[in-house]
Amino acid sequence: MADQSLPEARTPAAPQPREGAAPPAAREGISRRRLLGTAGATGLVLGAAGGAAGYAAAPAGATPLSSVGEDRVMFHGKHQPGITEGLPARGHLVAFDLAPGAGRKEAAALLRRWSDTARRLMAGEPSADGDTGVAQDAGPSSLTLTFGFGHSFFARTGLEERRPVALDPLPDFSSDHLDKARSNGDLWVQVGAHDALVAFHALRAVQKDAGAAARVRWQMNGFNRSPGATARPMTARNLMGQIDGTRNPKPSEPDFDRRIFVPADGEPAWMANGSYVVVRRIRMLLDDWEKLPVKEQEAVIGRRKSDGAPLSGGTETSAMDLEKTDSAGDLVVPFNAHARITRPDQNGGAAMLRRPLSYHDGIDAAGVPDAGLLFVCWQADPLRGFVPVQRKLDRGDALTPFIRHESSGLFAVPGGAAEGEYVGQRLLEG
Amino acid sequence: MADQSLPEARTPAAPQPREGAAPPAAREGISRRRLLGTAGATGLVLGAAGGAAGYAAAPAGATPLSSVGEDRVMFHGKHQPGITEGLPARGHLVAFDLAPGAGRKEAAALLRRWSDTARRLMAGEPSADGDTGVAQDAGPSSLTLTFGFGHSFFARTGLEERRPVALDPLPDFSSDHLDKARSNGDLWVQVGAHDALVAFHALRAVQKDAGAAARVRWQMNGFNRSPGATARPMTARNLMGQIDGTRNPKPSEPDFDRRIFVPADGEPAWMANGSYVVVRRIRMLLDDWEKLPVKEQEAVIGRRKSDGAPLSGGTETSAMDLEKTDSAGDLVVPFNAHARITRPDQNGGAAMLRRPLSYHDGIDAAGVPDAGLLFVCWQADPLRGFVPVQRKLDRGDALTPFIRHESSGLFAVPGGAAEGEYVGQRLLEG
Asked: Where is the region Disordered (chains A, B) (predicted)?
């Protein structure tokens, strides 16, 4: 079936190495470029200059792929893909629970299938078994697939002794309104791409691979700006209109790896070069938010809406002056401003790499959009990343009245698979 | 609020004229380019060569907008935008019902607000009243807004005498499974753009403009390929993996205008240069479809999955040989193949311009995706476009077991607004 449904001579696009897989000289430039989200915009010009389309079977007279389609992320590498790459224009999050009776053996076979599918699809090739054809004609479009394990996975597979302490359930937060059916799960998969059909194709392939071994627990869709749509690709805007991600740690910073990834000699050993991801579905109460005058919105956030600069002055990247007062003696950045509370230097150096998606699932019966942020954040240790920041936000964030955490997940995302290896193999076969 | 939230010196992007607004020499080339869906891919190279960003307030060192962001569609013109332009990467469909007590006067004021918002947003400017800022930093990204009137609008506004016969309810089709709550409506708005946040921003602005005059009846989200993601921008693939749109009428064809648009001297006068749109939410039963071997999928459609060529041979654009038989004497294109039944020359020359979106609203409790096609088709007369084709499909389309029409709408979309005019003014004030 796959053979019939796909072009005969499909030459994969030239790979773009990721950190860990790249020659040392290229590493820094590439990972930084991707992290900053400029891959689309920068690559665009390169793509137009480079000219060649991504595969040989393109019809005569076809328009060459731009780098939007042509860009390819490597599956194999030190870390899994989908963590330090720029924000994808389209993404899917999906959690699975192992089927009754499925254990370690079935889980290992599933991770092997998933890894094979990820490697193929990220290279712009069809999946091994009955490809649906939905991604045909498109390039890999920076597709990434990322796989993680939830707390409940370990008891179901007899691997409780290998469960990291970092997977202990997150504490309760008083402002949470969590739907358990849309929280956690045995397994988690993140799909991202710059093309919605490429992303959907990968999601369906992942679901098909699950077969009888696992069932979908929950699934969410999200989006970010399209490459080339903005002159400000450094940081995204969310559906509140606010610039988001200014203070994200950058791979060029000396402590980036230490904060985001488990060390190569870290514990447990199967999590070497891995990371922990916290996923929160954060609904935005847009009808309330949009009624606030911009001045009040800015006081809630602590930054200017137009350009993201701190209310204490400067530009988006200027340091925030936390002590600055106005002529009345009031703090210019209010004590409960969201950006003040979340500053790493206010949280013992806690840092997490946020790589979110906006979501919009239509409008409910009251005419209110079911929309907000699929908050996805990465850290070497959730107890030093997400938890202390969220504790402080929970106690006094001015943003709290305008958002609602509706679901939550915490997953252990192992390091990248080496050639010939599948993701999680060191856990499942070690 | 709007002034505070937006850059001070925002120079709109250079407009790209639409047919009717363009000088005659430029008209054919532009409308054809956009209809074929190549605007993104072609414009990409132009954008990179042209270089200049879309607005003056871009931060120093910012990456210039590519044509993905920079492309602008004109609001004013002979026809409304969003009909002959290429497929948008992201789209929203929303229907409103007038609020109890709201009549012709309130509807006229609403259409005036909507037209002003559409003109501003399509130019990359903020809306007049409390812009949310979500589209800030982005270019217009080929944003289009399109407005239509449903059958029920006319009784509620005392304009029944002006209701076109073409708005008479569509006949019942035996294979329909229509949800009335997600069908029809007094007013219909289509939003399309190549950036998801630009599209969401416009949707929110339209909803805010509705104010107390109208309430959302239903709202749906969809997508198409991103510009530059495919080397085959001529026709799209749908979520079944099938190439879709090969036989769409093209503006270069001599009878294009006659088939798609009400003539300038047509009836009723307020519909001059307008069009009728049929909107169907068509769920795809993907679990069933994907179990079919590709050969059987191709027999259902009548075209090859890989390249869209008719099963009778040739390439995607080759004429279909309806009489050709194989060595066993069987029709090569089966008698109930979808592409055979929908051919205009099998339907008395009926033609409609399809400009669909794929949709995917997550996965239901059974793990089945709520996904398919937001079928949007345009014609001068639904009784000569959609209806005869759907009647034939209803009687014997091989595709019927794999799809389900879940909602339906029919709307009268008046011609484009002239400078200083709002959409529908000739209906509401004529």
From this structure: 1-29
Plot region of A77 (φ>0 → left; ψ -120 to 50 → alpha; else → beta): left
| Alpha-carbon separation of residue B138 from A174, A229, B54, B125 (angstroms) | 37, 5, 8, 10
Q: Tell me, what's the pLDDT at A372?
A: 98
Helices A196-210 & A104-122 angle (0-180, nearest 10): 160
Q: Say if residue A327 is exposed, middle or buried (CB neighbours under 10 Å; 0-12, 13-18, 19+).
A: exposed
C-alpha to C-alpha distance for A127 and A109, rounded to whole angstroms = 16
Q: Chain B contacts of A48, Cβ < 8 Å?
A: 44-45, 48-49
Check residue B283 and give its pLDDT: 97
Q: Which two tokens stand for residue B276?
A: 């009728």
Question: Is there a contact between B204 and A48 if contact means CB atoms under 8 Å apart?
Answer: no
Q: Which of these is catalytic: B71, B186, B195, B244?
A: B244
Distance between A14 CA and the closest CA of chain B, angstroms: 15
DSSP single-letter state for residue B134: T
Instruction: Enumerate domains of chain A plus CATH numbers.
Output: 2-168+180-229+423-428 (3.30.70.1030)
Helix, strand, or coil (residue B79): coil
**How confident is the model at residue B61, as a pLDDT?**
46
* CA B278/CA B152 separation, integer angstroms: 15
Report how far residue B212's alpha carbon sits from residue B102's, in angstroms, rounded to the nearest whole number. Answer: 8
Q: What is the largest CA-CA distance in chain B?
A: 74
Just list the catalytic residues of A. 244
- Token readout for B411 is 């709307």
Q: What is the CA radius of gyration of chain A?
A: 22
Q: Which residues of A49-183 form beta strands (DSSP E)? A: 90-98, 144-150
Instruction: Give the pLDDT band of residue B55 (cuts 50, 70, 90).
Output: very low
In 3-state terms, what secondary structure has residue B258?
helix
Q: How many Cβ contacts (< 8 angstroms) between chains A and B?
A: 281
DSSP type of residue A302: T
Strand A243-244 relative to strand B187-193: parallel, antiparallel, unpaired? unpaired
The kind and range of the H/E element at A220 are: strand A214-223
Report CB contact under 8 Å: A44, B228.
Answer: yes
How many residues comprise chain B?
Answer: 430
**Above 50 in pLDDT, residue B52?**
no
In this prediction, residue A52 has a pLDDT band, given cuts at 50, 70 and 90, of very low
Which of B136, B138, B111 lies closest to B206 in space, CA to CA?
Answer: B111
pLDDT per residue over A162-198, tens digit each?
Answer: 999 999 999 999 999 999 999 999 999 999 999 999 9
Question: Residue A260 in 3-state DSSP?
Answer: helix
The helix/strand/coil state of A216 is strand
Q: Is B171 exposed, middle or buried (0-12, 13-18, 19+ CB in 10 A)?
A: exposed
Taking an 8 Å cut-off on Cβ atoms, the answer to whether A226 and B293 are in contact is no
Distance, C-alpha B169 to centroid of its chain: 20
Q: Which residues of B347-371 are buried (b: 16+ CB within 10 A; e: fewer)?
A: beebbbbbbbbbbbbbbeeeeebeb
At residue A10 the predicted structure's pLDDT band, cuts being 50, 70 and 90, is very low
Q: Quote the ipTM score.
A: 0.88
Q: What is the pLDDT of residues B70-125, one digit of tens each?
A: 999 999 999 999 999 999 999 999 999 999 999 999 999 999 999 999 999 999 99
Q: Is the peptide bond before A268 cis (omega within 30 degrees of 0)?
A: yes
Mean pLDDT confidence for A269-276:
98
Neighbours of B8 (CB within 10 A): 8
CB B276 within 8 A of CB B378: yes
- Fill in the amino acid letter for A369: P
The pLDDT of residue A363 is above 80:
yes
Q: What angle do CA B307, B308, B314 make, to 5 degrees?
A: 85
The dihedrals phi and psi of B331, each to the nearest 5 degrees, come to -60, 130
- Residue B345's pLDDT is 75
* Mutant choice from A3, A137, A200 vs B, greatest count of B C-beta within 10 A: A137
